[in-house]
Amino acid sequence: MGHVRLGYLPQTRPWKEVVRLISEGANVEAVAGATLHAADKAFATIQKDAGFADTVDLLTQLAVSAKKRDPAGHLAAQGLALSPQSSIAEVADAIQRALESKARERKSHSDFAELSHNALVSAVTTHLTTGLGPLFAPTSAEVHGALSTLGRPSHFGQLAQTFFDHLSRSCLNVFLSKTLGSQIGAGHQFSTTAQVSQFEGAMAQHTREASEIVSRYCKEWFSKNLFEGNGDISKKKSTGFGWIALKKIRSEMKERAKPNAR
Fold first, then answer.
1. How many domains in the chain?
2. What pTM value is reported for the model?
3. Residue 168: which of 127, 221, 209, 223 has the closest Cα?
4. Which of 165, 70, 158 is CA-nearest to residue 115?
5. Structural domain containing residue 110
6. Are 118 and 173 in contact (CB under 8 A)?
7. I need a surface site. Which of 246, 248, 260, 261 has the fewest CB within 10 A?
8. Over the stretch 70-104, which tens digit does the pLDDT of each residue have?
């Protein structure tokens, strides 16, 4: 199975700027902005990533299915088999298996596809856990009930925003991980691994706040396209939606990284 990697960023000139900013103690917005600049060339190579297209399409179909008379049957047709007794963990596993099956069918895989798969699993798990509460194990009926709410534009908007947040954060972490490890110890930016964790937490907050830029867009996009498609949304439209959302978040993060940004 072919495998396409994100790129060789540590050797590029922009990546040296990321290293410099971290070593000099720059704020998280500036580091994120420099990281995105360094990553631009890599992102340019994945504009047609099939794994990402499959992931965003499945994200959309989770919501579309909630409007169908037979939600489970609709999802099964998309390659996602859920039993009536599914737990949150089983839903997450089914999503992962469905996406891996699509990767095997097209006989290609990429780092970005894998990050996309993991981001969707994480987003759905977060959505269900938040909606149902973490104190008691929800019943299968409650799990399916929570999935049925994704047909509401506001709920789809929340899930999609979480997905793009997690995906953006994962991409940044891939690039930052190449540098953060070398910045721990005496004479470096981080004295302890705890400080690295603190920095990573700040970066997570940064991507979460930046992802808010797509909250309204995701909600309105779903409502509009579901109506225009008479209850269905094509993969082509879903893929375009995904790239636009990522572009919006990347632009927002770059804007927030500017010296005069609040």
1. 1
2. 0.86
3. 209
4. 165
5. 2-256
6. no
7. 260
8. 999 999 999 999 988 889 999 999 999 999 999 99
